[in-house]
Amino acid sequence: MKNPLSIATPVGPFYVAVSRGHVVWATFRPGKYLVPHGSKPGDLEILALAKREVEEYFSGQRGRFTVPLKLEGTPFQRSVWEEAAKIPCGRTLTYGELARRIKKHRAARAVGNALGRNPAVLFIPCHRVVPASGGVGGFGSGPEVKRALLDLEKKVCSDAT
């Protein structure tokens, strides 16, 4: 896609870029990623699916996303993102807990760094990972957006604790 799709959300515009039938990045801060060029058959359908799922999420009708992703990252980053994607809506894990789940018990800081490079914010719910010391911790879109996402999920997710 030459330009990403912009989706209006309660926390500001959310941008999604698709290439070759997969979401390749999604962010609240569009300048963070390069936009792939050249759309392929199926890209418009994936953008429409992404838009629908983001709107459903913010209206409280969706806690898990199904859009196909193709994310570039190191094997470690991909393992962190895959595990973060398993965190249910309304729940949180600490960076240390996520590190233990991927069998890297002392890698909490590295987990945080990998989440900071998450190219598909919201679809890979890195906002659900928080520091053990309390608070919301870091988030590439800003702590106010992370707090808003966590607060939304507390209200609308049926499996929230």
User: Ends: how far apart?
Assistant: 39 Å
Beta-strand residue percentage: 5-15%
Strand order of the largest sheet: 1-2-3
Number of beta strands: 5
Approximately how much helix is present in the residues? 25-40%
Q: How confident is the prediction overall: mean pLDDT?
A: 88
> What is the count of helical runs?
5
**Biggest sheet features:** 3 strands, antiparallel
Tertiary shape: globular
Q: Order of SSEs, N→C? A: EEEHHEHHEH
CATH superfamily of the largest domain: Winged helix-like DNA-binding domain superfamily/Winged helix DNA-binding domain
- The CATH class assignment of the largest domain is Mainly Alpha
Total individual domains: 2
Q: What gyration radius follows from the Cα positions, in whole Å?
A: 15 Å
Helix/strand-derived category reads alpha+beta
CATH topology of the largest domain: Arc Repressor Mutant, subunit A
CATH architecture field of the largest domain: Orthogonal Bundle
Q: Which runs of at least 5 residues are low in confidence (pLDDT < 50)?
A: none
